[in-house]
Amino acid sequence: MEKIVTKNLNLWYGSFHALKNVNSIFEANKITAIIGPSGCGKSTLLRTFNRMNDLIEGVRTTGEILIDGTNALDLHADMVVLRKKVGMVFQRPNPFPLSIYENIVFGQRVHTNSIKRDLLDKIVEDSLKSVLLWTELKDRLNMPALRLSLEQRQRLCIARLIAVKPDILLMDEPCSTLDPQATARIEELMRELKNNYSIIIVTHNMQQAARVSDDAGFMLLGELVEFGKTEDIFTRPKDKRTEDYITGRYG
Amino acid sequence: MERHFDEELKDLHKYILKMAALAQEAIFKSVESLKNRDKAQAQAVIDADSKVDELELIIDERCIDLIARYQPMAGDLRFITTGMKINAELERIADLAVDISQRVLEIADKPLLKPLIDIPKLSIIAQNMVGDSIDSFIKKDTELARKVLYSDSEADNLRNLVQKELINDYMLKDVKSADRAVPLLLIARHLERICDHSTNIAEDVIYMLSAKVVKHHPEKLEDKNNGLI
């Protein structure tokens, strides 16, 4: 099922044309990886899906981003609803300087004026369980989140997203600060999460894209050069530019 | 951008060519030993097989090492995995040359059952098919690989012809001819198997170059739209 469809998507930072006519289909309950060299527009594309680029001055976007059939670029789109539906995990885990518990319920408190404590407790438990942190943290929920390890912080950030029940998880280099073991565990978590969410990951790590994604797209100079099943992209790419990039010949 | 990995791939290519040269030499000498009833040459083919076996292991190890260290993708990955498969095919081809040589040793001292006509023809087809399949690998030539695949039926027909003649005209008429007819029958079989292995190489080359699997899918051979890159 199509989750996100981009149609003739273009984006400019001032006069710099950062996304050029991107047409793509991101399927529900799949992990889609976007790969490409630095500056190719992959993070920009990711950030258009919950309109985080709007925060940058001089940004102009044209085309359509249909999320469940609704154009996210519509001027009247409700940003609160959009960002609740489309959550983002960043390169460096960025928990708030609050307790583990308060980090997870932060979104709930933003979205709902008054909510009962036992309901919040349940959300914290469910969210931590879904990122496989509950067992190790259930007795330390009031501990400052900044005392967690990097991997735990990244899991916590994912739990914080899940708490507001999004549909789509955007991940921008989510493992680049983690060691190989922690990376492997986050990848396992992603595989678990895709049963309930659609995941789009931007990564420089080609092996990670090959391991974890179902579909993959290769971007170069703002253009989505090739998009398809991951196994095809990594064993039989159709475009020479894709071949050159994934085999390390680019540059 | 030239990569250090390219040097490693070139090395692997050289090793596969060396393996191919050894396998081709083994077939050539085994066929010559049959023509000339030359026991010494047949024995030399058998003795040389250990070199082929050694090289097979070296190439396999190299391929595994490259996969582990470089985690190759796309064309690089297809080259290495195809290299491993071609390596195994070449080793089997060399083994079949040994089998032919062993049959030569069995019949060399006995009077020739009949003048050899179809077996030399089959041996020429086998050598050409092996040569072309290796050339298709070297020259990255899918057309040549396709030609190898289309040659296989000719080899099958000749093998059947030899088999029919030896059974009907000799073995069924005179049981005592069996000890001279059976080795010839087996030689035809060995040569036909060599042709089969060269078709496997050709199929592997097509996969390496175009990422198209034609093995067990002969209908895909007709689809010329196989240029990936």
Please identify which CATH superfamily of the domain at 2-94 and 166-246 in chain A we are dealing with.
P-loop containing nucleotide triphosphate hydrolases
Total number of helical segments of chain B?
A: 6
Overall spatial form of chain A: globular
**Proportion of strand residues of chain B:** under 5%
Mean pLDDT of chain A comes to 93
Structural class of chain A: alpha/beta
What level of helicity do the residues of chain B show? Answer: over 70%
Domain module count of chain B: 1
What is the CATH architecture annotation of chain B? Up-down Bundle
Run of helices and strands of chain B: HHHHHH
CATH homologous superfamily identity of chain B: Phosphate transport system protein phou homolog 2, domain 2
Largest sheet features of chain A: 6 strands, mixed
The proportion of residues in beta strands of chain A is: 25-35%
If interface size is counted as residues with C-beta under 8 Å from the partner's C-beta, which chains form the largest one? A-B, 18 and 14 residues
Helix content of chain A: 25-40%
Short description:
Chain A has ten helices and ten strands. By secondary structure, chain A is of the alpha/beta class.
Which structural traits does this protein have?
heterodimer, A: 251 residues, Rossmann fold, 6-stranded mixed beta sheet, 4-stranded antiparallel beta sheet, 10 helices, 10 strands, B: 229 residues, mainly alpha
Give the topology:
The complex is a heterodimer of chains A (251) and B (229).
Chain A: E1 2-13, E2 16-27, E3 31-35, H1 42-48, E4 59-67, E5 70-71, H2 79-85, E6 86-89, H3 100-111, H4 117-130, H5 134-137, H6 150-162, E7 168-172, H7 180-193, E8 198-202, H8 206-212, E9 215-220, E10 223-229, H9 230-235, H10 240-246
Parallel strand pairs in A: 3-8, 3-9, 6-7, 7-8
Antiparallel strand pairs in A: 1-2, 1-4, 4-5, 9-10
Chain B: H1 4-36, H2 39-70, H3 74-107, H4 118-139, H5 142-171, H6 178-210
Helix pairs in contact in B: 1-2, 1-3, 1-4, 2-3, 3-6, 4-5, 4-6, 5-6
